[in-house]
Amino acid sequence: MKVLVVNAGSSSIKYQVFDMTTETVLAKGLVDRVGIPGTTLEHKPAGKDEVVIKKDLPDHTEGMRLVLEVLTNEEYGVIKSMDEIGAVGHRVVHGGESFAQSVIIDDHVKKVIRDCFDIAPLHNPPNLMGIEACQALMPNVPHVAVFDTAFHQTMEPANYLYALPYEVYEKYHVRRYGFHGTSHYYVSHRAADMLGKPYEECKIITLHLGNGASMAAIKNGKVVDTTMGFTPLEGLVMGTRSGDIDPAIVFYLMEKLGMDTKEANNYFNKKCGMLGLSGVSNDLRDILEAAKSGNYRAQIALEVYYNRVKGYIGNYIAKLNGCDCLVFTAGVGENGWDIRENICKDLDYLGIKIDPEKNKVRGKEVDVAAEDSKVRIFVIPTNEELVIARDTYRLAQGK
Question: Which residues of this protein are annotated with the site description Transition state stabilizer (predicted)?
Answer without folding.
Answer: 180, 241
